[in-house]
Here is the input.
Amino acid sequence: MLPITVAAAALNQTPLDWDRNQRNIRAALDGARAAGAGLLCLPELAITGYGCEDAFSSPWVHEEALARLRALLPETRGVVVGLGLPLFHAGALYDACCLVADGRILGFSAKRELAGDGLHYEPRWFKAWPAGARGWYELDGVEYPVGDLVFDCGGVRLGFEICEDAWSARRPGAELMRQAVDVILNPSASHFAFGKCDVRRRFVMEGSRAFGVSYLYANLLGNEAGRAIYDGDTLIASAGELLASGPRFAPGACTLTSAVIDVELTRARRASLFSYQPAVAAEPGACVSVPHAWPRAERAPASLAEPAWERSPHRKEEELARAVPLALSDYLEKSRARGFVVSLSGGADSAAVALLASLAARLARECPERPEPTLTTVYQATRNSSERTRQAARTVARLAGARHLELDVDALVDGYTSLVGGALGRELSWDTDDLALQNIQARARAPGAWLIANLEGALLLATGNRSEAAVGYATMDGDTAGGLSPLAGVDKAFLRRWLAWMRDEGPLGVGPLPELSVVTEQAPTAELRPSAAAQTDEADLMPYELLGALERAAVRDRRSPVEAYELMRAAFPALGRRQLFIHVERFFKMFSSSQWKRERYAPGLHLDDLSLDPKTWYRFPILSGGFARELEELRRRVEREP
Here is the structure.
């Protein structure tokens, strides 16, 4: 037997926050030693932070990263650890991981498969390392091996799959298996999306089985750079068996997961695999061998017990209730704001934002080093606001534990309409100026909310959701006002289900909030037209379930209007073909004409692998043909149908 204790740590890093990042790495090293671990896997680019963006191209960043690497070397006594950093080599920049053992640099492994889809733009900064290529990197007058390497540390062979490497069809693990690697380390920066942890778990377990290895996976934790959320996954598997997994969405700077692996047992299982064909004549330089004394494991493996919410049939709802508060709590701390301000309308979106901000404040209280944030809500009425939404806003504010303010902005609205009407020489009316009169009410609310946020040194949270962004159903500089948009990655149909779940069940440890019925039992409405108009969102737009399905068809699946129409006919058979055509036409027209709005929305949190953020996910021209030809083709098709 050759049992050794290994560990994986999730770190809450911040781009270019050198001291914080170094502190967190040091805490992980201390924790690994305390757990008796001789091998530690840390997240990707842990020294600099993953989300440095174009700062990666700055030479001073590379120099400071190397300086921090040098500073961390004495901290690695007794531990073999990979320290991720950008490495400038041969005139190009690489996403690399320096393997360090007991204060000595052994070499640098470089990432082969770069993530260039969704919110990842790695090819903008890094070059992909060619498979099988190796070279030498000079640091402080010493040459170290760099590239596609295997490390033999005291008879235990180690290799790397760096994040995207493991998601690719060309996984380096197959080649590492041929070189008889015992342990694969996967330093990752894999953003959160609903249900994505299941995919990670599968490739970790399957990689460990198919390659006949032990596998260590470590992800980032928290809101690292503003948009992406990292759930802090840490996984340890061996020969297809998951040995340990750490908590997700944990507060704080570092979580550590450890387990005991038996290297000799894993080797025996690999030898029995029919697919294992060893490279009996390894290429010179492919393996870096150093003496190393592994501490013998004396502790039992960590428990695999999962929290009850992970097994809940409402896990997506539970994930939202954990991912967004963690992101908000981190954003608040890293932006140095003192609290949150939410403009409550009494409707679903702002209610959800207020509740999530409340959960973020609760999470911050679990971190003694963070000051308790404030939460202020404000209801801003016009003559078109109802008593029902006023009472709903009061109820939500009380449930959220917020300080609640009420303002009447009718005087501001009247002042603008009379001022502009006087300049134009006519009285503005609902018969001729419907949309403008709706918008001025929403815009009149923004200055007051911003003023409160400024006075409190707080972060104003925008309340729009992804469905409304898809069709531009928002007033620019009105309900879009805010510095961060927590619900930008959530469609309205799911958001309404989430609120119903919060009403009836709620996240584990929080419980149900039955008084939310004042929000969930009313039809979503902007309340911008006179009450006699009985305005509702779905009457203005279409059923939210249909809107979400059209968005997925058009954006995620890249369907044309004709193709989307056919899919909707099958999915919504109760809708007549002409009514369905009206909805499909409305969606594509509004989607194409609203890109300029999406370009101006506040930064949004990514919660699903479907996003409309043009800066980090889905790019669409601001000016386009507006699907005119395609919609005309659809119109003719519908007219020909019996």
Notes: The first helix runs from residue 18 to 34.
